[in-house]
Amino acid sequence: MHKILFLPIFFLVFGHTEALAQPTDISSEPDQVWVHEHTGTGFPAKLGRFDRSTIRDLTKNQLDIVVSYKDPNKQGGLTLYIYRPAINSVPLWFETAKQSLMNGSFGEFVTEKVTDTVFTPAGQSSTAGMLVSYSLSGSGYKSTAIAMAPINGWLLKVRYSSAEYDAQSLANEILKILSTVETGDDLEQAPKVLAVKPCAKKLKLKSKAKSFRPSLVDALIGGVITSAAEEDKSDRDQTVKAVTYCRDPGEYQKWTVFRADESKNSYVLPLADSGRALSVYQNTVSGEISGDNRKRYTPVHMKLGQHDIYADVNVLPVPETLIAVINQGNLISSSTTWPEEGSTITIDGGLTTDE
Predict the structure, then answer these.
(1) Please, how many CA atoms are within 13 Å of residue 144, restricted to the half-sphere of its CB?
(2) Which long-range contacts (CB under 8 A, 24 or more apart) does 23-27 make?
(3) pLDDT digit string (tens) for 258-304?
(4) Beta strand pairing call for 297-302 and 306-310
(5) Strand, helix or coil at 208?
(6) Which of 50, 126, 229, 343 has its CA 20 to 30 A from that of 254?
(7) Distance CA 47, CA 182 (A)
Protein backbone atom coordinates (compact mmCIF):
# COMPACT_ATOMS: atom_id res chain seq x y z
CA MET A 1 0.00 0.00 0.00
CA HIS A 2 1.30 3.43 -0.82
CA LYS A 3 0.05 7.00 -0.95
CA ILE A 4 0.67 9.57 -3.67
CA LEU A 5 -0.58 13.11 -4.14
CA PHE A 6 -3.46 13.41 -6.59
CA LEU A 7 -4.59 16.93 -7.46
CA PRO A 8 -4.52 19.68 -4.83
CA ILE A 9 -7.11 18.20 -2.45
CA PHE A 10 -6.89 14.45 -2.99
CA PHE A 11 -4.71 11.59 -1.84
CA LEU A 12 -4.86 8.28 -3.68
CA VAL A 13 -4.43 4.97 -1.84
CA PHE A 14 -4.68 1.38 -3.09
CA GLY A 15 -6.36 -1.13 -0.76
CA HIS A 16 -9.17 -0.35 1.67
CA THR A 17 -8.42 1.05 5.10
CA GLU A 18 -11.90 1.11 6.64
CA ALA A 19 -11.80 0.87 10.43
CA LEU A 20 -14.87 0.22 12.56
CA ALA A 21 -15.09 1.85 15.98
CA GLN A 22 -16.83 0.59 19.10
CA PRO A 23 -18.86 3.19 21.04
CA THR A 24 -16.84 4.61 23.91
CA ASP A 25 -17.74 6.63 26.99
CA ILE A 26 -16.03 10.00 27.35
CA SER A 27 -15.03 11.08 30.85
CA SER A 28 -15.78 14.61 32.01
CA GLU A 29 -15.64 16.69 35.17
CA PRO A 30 -19.08 16.30 36.79
CA ASP A 31 -19.49 20.03 37.50
CA GLN A 32 -17.91 21.40 34.31
CA VAL A 33 -19.16 22.10 30.79
CA TRP A 34 -18.00 19.40 28.37
CA VAL A 35 -16.88 20.90 25.05
CA HIS A 36 -17.14 19.03 21.77
CA GLU A 37 -13.72 18.95 20.10
CA HIS A 38 -14.69 19.83 16.52
CA THR A 39 -17.45 22.41 16.95
CA GLY A 40 -16.77 23.97 20.34
CA THR A 41 -20.32 23.17 21.41
CA GLY A 42 -20.56 23.12 25.20
CA PHE A 43 -22.80 20.69 27.08
CA PRO A 44 -23.44 21.92 30.67
CA ALA A 45 -23.31 19.66 33.70
CA LYS A 46 -26.92 20.71 34.35
CA LEU A 47 -29.72 21.67 31.97
CA GLY A 48 -32.58 22.94 34.06
CA ARG A 49 -33.17 20.25 36.63
CA PHE A 50 -31.47 17.62 34.47
CA ASP A 51 -28.03 16.29 35.43
CA ARG A 52 -25.60 15.20 32.74
CA SER A 53 -25.06 11.45 33.13
CA THR A 54 -23.10 10.02 30.17
CA ILE A 55 -21.24 11.25 27.11
CA ARG A 56 -20.76 8.61 24.45
CA ASP A 57 -18.81 8.72 21.19
CA LEU A 58 -20.42 6.44 18.60
CA THR A 59 -17.39 6.84 16.33
CA LYS A 60 -13.64 6.87 16.94
CA ASN A 61 -13.19 10.63 16.42
CA GLN A 62 -16.20 12.50 17.86
CA LEU A 63 -18.21 12.57 14.64
CA ASP A 64 -21.33 11.29 16.44
CA ILE A 65 -21.78 12.20 20.11
CA VAL A 66 -24.69 11.34 22.41
CA VAL A 67 -25.03 13.27 25.69
CA SER A 68 -27.62 11.87 28.12
CA TYR A 69 -29.22 13.77 31.00
CA LYS A 70 -31.15 12.37 33.97
CA ASP A 71 -34.11 13.93 35.73
CA PRO A 72 -33.77 13.37 39.51
CA ASN A 73 -37.56 13.54 39.75
CA LYS A 74 -37.90 10.87 37.04
CA GLN A 75 -40.43 12.98 35.17
CA GLY A 76 -38.66 13.09 31.86
CA GLY A 77 -35.88 11.94 29.56
CA LEU A 78 -33.47 14.29 27.79
CA THR A 79 -30.82 13.41 25.21
CA LEU A 80 -28.67 15.71 23.09
CA TYR A 81 -26.82 14.65 19.95
CA ILE A 82 -24.19 16.36 17.87
CA TYR A 83 -23.04 14.73 14.65
CA ARG A 84 -21.62 15.54 11.24
CA PRO A 85 -24.22 14.27 8.76
CA ALA A 86 -23.23 12.85 5.41
CA ILE A 87 -25.63 15.39 3.85
CA ASN A 88 -25.72 18.87 5.33
CA SER A 89 -29.49 19.45 5.47
CA VAL A 90 -31.58 20.20 8.55
CA PRO A 91 -34.92 19.52 6.76
CA LEU A 92 -33.79 16.12 5.46
CA TRP A 93 -32.65 14.81 8.84
CA PHE A 94 -35.47 16.45 10.75
CA GLU A 95 -38.03 14.73 8.52
CA THR A 96 -36.18 11.43 9.02
CA ALA A 97 -36.10 11.97 12.79
CA LYS A 98 -39.85 12.52 12.85
CA GLN A 99 -40.42 9.30 10.96
CA SER A 100 -38.11 7.41 13.32
CA LEU A 101 -40.06 8.80 16.25
CA MET A 102 -43.38 7.73 14.78
CA ASN A 103 -41.99 4.23 14.26
CA GLY A 104 -40.64 4.05 17.83
CA SER A 105 -42.04 2.68 21.08
CA PHE A 106 -43.07 5.86 22.91
CA GLY A 107 -46.75 5.03 23.13
CA GLU A 108 -49.74 5.81 20.96
CA PHE A 109 -49.67 9.25 19.36
CA VAL A 110 -52.73 11.47 19.61
CA THR A 111 -54.32 12.07 16.20
CA GLU A 112 -52.49 15.34 15.42
CA LYS A 113 -49.06 16.63 16.34
CA VAL A 114 -49.41 19.69 18.52
CA THR A 115 -46.73 21.79 16.87
CA ASP A 116 -44.45 21.45 13.86
CA THR A 117 -42.59 24.69 13.34
CA VAL A 118 -39.32 26.46 12.61
CA PHE A 119 -37.35 28.69 14.96
CA THR A 120 -34.27 30.91 15.01
CA PRO A 121 -31.48 29.16 16.96
CA ALA A 122 -29.15 31.15 19.20
CA GLY A 123 -26.52 32.93 17.09
CA GLN A 124 -28.50 32.60 13.86
CA SER A 125 -30.30 35.38 12.00
CA SER A 126 -32.88 33.23 10.22
CA THR A 127 -35.25 30.37 10.96
CA ALA A 128 -32.58 27.69 10.55
CA GLY A 129 -33.94 25.30 13.20
CA MET A 130 -36.93 22.92 13.24
CA LEU A 131 -39.13 21.64 16.08
CA VAL A 132 -41.95 19.15 16.48
CA SER A 133 -43.90 18.16 19.59
CA TYR A 134 -46.43 15.34 20.04
CA SER A 135 -48.97 14.40 22.68
CA LEU A 136 -48.68 10.82 23.86
CA SER A 137 -50.99 8.26 25.38
CA GLY A 138 -50.51 4.66 26.40
CA SER A 139 -47.07 5.22 27.92
CA GLY A 140 -45.50 6.83 30.96
CA TYR A 141 -45.05 10.10 29.08
CA LYS A 142 -47.55 12.84 28.23
CA SER A 143 -45.51 14.34 25.41
CA THR A 144 -42.33 14.02 23.36
CA ALA A 145 -40.47 16.52 21.18
CA ILE A 146 -37.53 16.87 18.78
CA ALA A 147 -35.62 20.02 17.94
CA MET A 148 -32.75 20.34 15.47
CA ALA A 149 -30.33 23.19 14.74
CA PRO A 150 -27.26 23.56 12.49
CA ILE A 151 -23.76 24.30 13.77
CA ASN A 152 -21.22 24.93 10.99
CA GLY A 153 -22.16 21.88 8.94
CA TRP A 154 -22.94 19.76 12.01
CA LEU A 155 -26.35 19.05 13.54
CA LEU A 156 -27.42 19.53 17.14
CA LYS A 157 -30.50 17.44 17.93
CA VAL A 158 -32.48 17.42 21.17
CA ARG A 159 -34.93 14.68 22.20
CA TYR A 160 -37.13 15.41 25.21
CA SER A 161 -39.95 13.27 26.60
CA SER A 162 -41.99 14.31 29.62
CA ALA A 163 -44.45 12.79 32.06
CA GLU A 164 -45.18 16.29 33.35
CA TYR A 165 -45.62 18.72 30.44
CA ASP A 166 -48.23 18.75 27.74
CA ALA A 167 -46.96 18.93 24.18
CA GLN A 168 -47.14 22.72 23.82
CA SER A 169 -45.37 23.31 27.14
CA LEU A 170 -42.72 20.77 26.18
CA ALA A 171 -42.08 22.64 22.92
CA ASN A 172 -41.38 25.77 24.95
CA GLU A 173 -39.09 23.85 27.32
CA ILE A 174 -37.02 22.30 24.56
CA LEU A 175 -36.36 25.75 23.09
CA LYS A 176 -35.18 26.95 26.50
CA ILE A 177 -32.76 24.01 26.67
CA LEU A 178 -31.37 24.76 23.21
CA SER A 179 -30.80 28.39 24.18
CA THR A 180 -28.54 27.35 27.08
CA VAL A 181 -26.27 25.09 25.00
CA GLU A 182 -23.07 26.93 24.05
CA THR A 183 -22.46 26.84 20.29
CA GLY A 184 -18.79 27.87 20.21
CA ASP A 185 -17.05 30.71 18.42
CA ASP A 186 -17.32 31.71 14.74
CA LEU A 187 -20.82 30.35 14.24
CA GLU A 188 -21.61 30.58 10.54
CA GLN A 189 -25.04 31.70 9.40
CA ALA A 190 -27.17 28.82 8.14
CA PRO A 191 -29.90 29.15 5.49
CA LYS A 192 -33.57 29.42 6.28
CA VAL A 193 -35.13 25.95 6.37
CA LEU A 194 -38.05 24.72 4.31
CA ALA A 195 -40.13 21.72 5.33
CA VAL A 196 -39.78 18.61 3.18
CA LYS A 197 -42.82 18.19 0.93
CA PRO A 198 -43.90 15.36 -1.39
CA CYS A 199 -42.29 15.36 -4.83
CA ALA A 200 -44.62 16.14 -7.73
CA LYS A 201 -44.16 12.70 -9.31
CA LYS A 202 -42.65 9.45 -8.14
CA LEU A 203 -39.50 7.95 -9.61
CA LYS A 204 -39.63 4.99 -11.95
CA LEU A 205 -37.50 2.55 -9.96
CA LYS A 206 -36.63 -1.01 -10.92
CA SER A 207 -36.54 -4.07 -8.67
CA LYS A 208 -33.86 -5.93 -10.68
CA ALA A 209 -30.41 -4.52 -11.31
CA LYS A 210 -27.18 -5.81 -12.86
CA SER A 211 -23.76 -4.52 -11.91
CA PHE A 212 -21.24 -3.34 -14.48
CA ARG A 213 -17.76 -4.83 -14.33
CA PRO A 214 -15.85 -2.05 -12.54
CA SER A 215 -12.58 -0.63 -13.78
CA LEU A 216 -9.90 1.48 -12.13
CA VAL A 217 -11.32 4.49 -13.99
CA ASP A 218 -14.79 3.87 -12.50
CA ALA A 219 -13.34 3.67 -9.00
CA LEU A 220 -11.35 6.84 -9.41
CA ILE A 221 -14.24 8.79 -10.96
CA GLY A 222 -16.60 7.74 -8.17
CA GLY A 223 -14.10 8.86 -5.54
CA VAL A 224 -13.42 12.18 -7.21
CA ILE A 225 -17.13 12.98 -7.71
CA THR A 226 -18.00 12.36 -4.06
CA SER A 227 -14.92 14.26 -2.89
CA ALA A 228 -15.77 17.23 -5.11
CA ALA A 229 -19.35 17.25 -3.81
CA GLU A 230 -18.05 17.30 -0.24
CA GLU A 231 -15.69 20.15 -1.06
CA ASP A 232 -18.55 22.17 -2.54
CA LYS A 233 -20.63 21.52 0.57
CA SER A 234 -17.89 22.56 2.98
CA ASP A 235 -17.40 25.85 1.13
CA ARG A 236 -20.66 27.08 2.74
CA ASP A 237 -21.18 29.95 0.30
CA GLN A 238 -24.48 31.37 1.47
CA THR A 239 -25.03 33.12 -1.88
CA VAL A 240 -25.65 29.69 -3.41
CA LYS A 241 -29.25 28.49 -3.14
CA ALA A 242 -29.60 25.65 -0.63
CA VAL A 243 -30.69 22.27 -1.97
CA THR A 244 -34.38 21.57 -1.36
CA TYR A 245 -35.32 17.97 -0.67
CA CYS A 246 -38.69 16.43 -1.48
CA ARG A 247 -40.13 13.10 -0.37
CA ASP A 248 -40.83 10.64 -3.17
CA PRO A 249 -44.53 9.67 -3.07
CA GLY A 250 -43.82 6.04 -3.94
CA GLU A 251 -44.37 3.31 -1.33
CA TYR A 252 -41.20 1.36 -0.55
CA GLN A 253 -42.11 -0.71 2.51
CA LYS A 254 -40.44 0.91 5.54
CA TRP A 255 -38.10 3.09 3.47
CA THR A 256 -38.51 6.73 2.49
CA VAL A 257 -36.82 8.09 -0.61
CA PHE A 258 -35.71 11.74 -0.73
CA ARG A 259 -34.73 13.65 -3.86
CA ALA A 260 -32.65 16.80 -4.19
CA ASP A 261 -34.47 19.51 -6.17
CA GLU A 262 -36.96 16.97 -7.62
CA SER A 263 -34.14 14.96 -9.22
CA LYS A 264 -35.29 12.41 -11.79
CA ASN A 265 -32.10 10.34 -11.85
CA SER A 266 -30.93 10.12 -8.22
CA TYR A 267 -32.15 9.77 -4.66
CA VAL A 268 -31.06 9.55 -1.04
CA LEU A 269 -32.09 6.81 1.39
CA PRO A 270 -31.43 7.77 5.05
CA LEU A 271 -30.43 4.97 7.41
CA ALA A 272 -32.35 6.03 10.54
CA ASP A 273 -31.86 9.65 11.64
CA SER A 274 -28.18 9.56 12.60
CA GLY A 275 -26.72 11.28 9.52
CA ARG A 276 -25.86 8.15 7.54
CA ALA A 277 -27.47 7.29 4.21
CA LEU A 278 -27.33 5.38 0.96
CA SER A 279 -27.55 7.24 -2.32
CA VAL A 280 -27.58 6.42 -6.00
CA TYR A 281 -27.07 8.80 -8.92
CA GLN A 282 -26.76 8.59 -12.70
CA ASN A 283 -23.09 8.47 -13.67
CA THR A 284 -22.58 9.96 -17.13
CA VAL A 285 -18.83 10.55 -16.80
CA SER A 286 -17.72 6.90 -16.80
CA GLY A 287 -19.71 6.17 -19.94
CA GLU A 288 -18.29 9.18 -21.75
CA ILE A 289 -14.72 8.18 -20.93
CA SER A 290 -15.18 4.52 -21.87
CA GLY A 291 -17.34 5.17 -24.92
CA ASP A 292 -20.16 3.08 -23.41
CA ASN A 293 -23.50 4.83 -23.99
CA ARG A 294 -25.52 2.58 -21.67
CA LYS A 295 -27.13 4.27 -18.68
CA ARG A 296 -25.36 3.53 -15.42
CA TYR A 297 -26.01 4.50 -11.81
CA THR A 298 -23.51 4.66 -8.96
CA PRO A 299 -24.50 3.37 -5.48
CA VAL A 300 -22.84 5.10 -2.52
CA HIS A 301 -22.82 4.35 1.20
CA MET A 302 -22.57 7.77 2.81
CA LYS A 303 -21.00 7.56 6.26
CA LEU A 304 -20.17 10.39 8.62
CA GLY A 305 -16.52 10.60 7.60
CA GLN A 306 -16.31 8.50 4.45
CA HIS A 307 -18.24 7.66 1.29
CA ASP A 308 -17.99 4.09 -0.04
CA ILE A 309 -18.54 3.76 -3.80
CA TYR A 310 -19.85 0.53 -5.33
CA ALA A 311 -19.87 -0.85 -8.86
CA ASP A 312 -22.36 0.89 -11.16
CA VAL A 313 -25.71 -0.75 -11.88
CA ASN A 314 -27.80 -0.56 -15.03
CA VAL A 315 -31.02 0.89 -13.54
CA LEU A 316 -32.18 3.24 -10.84
CA PRO A 317 -33.10 0.60 -8.24
CA VAL A 318 -35.83 0.43 -5.60
CA PRO A 319 -34.48 0.83 -2.04
CA GLU A 320 -34.48 -2.91 -1.30
CA THR A 321 -32.38 -3.56 -4.42
CA LEU A 322 -30.01 -0.69 -3.58
CA ILE A 323 -29.51 -2.16 -0.12
CA ALA A 324 -28.88 -5.59 -1.63
CA VAL A 325 -26.28 -4.12 -4.01
CA ILE A 326 -24.47 -2.52 -1.07
CA ASN A 327 -24.67 -5.71 0.99
CA GLN A 328 -23.11 -7.72 -1.83
CA GLY A 329 -19.93 -5.84 -1.04
CA ASN A 330 -18.75 -4.97 -4.55
CA LEU A 331 -16.87 -1.98 -3.15
CA ILE A 332 -14.57 -0.30 -5.68
CA SER A 333 -13.37 2.85 -3.88
CA SER A 334 -13.79 5.03 -0.82
CA SER A 335 -13.45 8.77 -0.37
CA THR A 336 -12.91 10.34 3.03
CA THR A 337 -14.99 13.41 3.91
CA TRP A 338 -13.30 14.07 7.26
CA PRO A 339 -11.05 15.85 8.12
CA GLU A 340 -12.17 18.66 5.85
CA GLU A 341 -8.64 19.75 4.88
CA GLY A 342 -8.39 17.15 2.11
CA SER A 343 -9.74 13.86 0.88
CA THR A 344 -8.11 10.44 0.60
CA ILE A 345 -9.45 8.28 -2.21
CA THR A 346 -8.85 4.58 -1.60
CA ILE A 347 -8.99 2.27 -4.64
CA ASP A 348 -9.60 -1.47 -4.55
CA GLY A 349 -6.23 -3.10 -5.23
CA GLY A 350 -7.73 -5.74 -7.58
CA LEU A 351 -9.05 -3.31 -10.17
CA THR A 352 -7.34 -2.78 -13.49
CA THR A 353 -7.66 -0.30 -16.35
CA ASP A 354 -9.30 -2.99 -18.48
CA GLU A 355 -12.93 -2.48 -19.38
Answers:
(1) 22
(2) 23/56, 23/57, 23/58, 24/56, 24/57, 24/60, 25/54, 25/55, 25/56, 25/57, 26/55, 26/56, 26/57, 26/65
(3) 999 999 999 999 998 999 999 999 998 877 777 788 999 999 999 99
(4) antiparallel
(5) coil
(6) 229
(7) 12
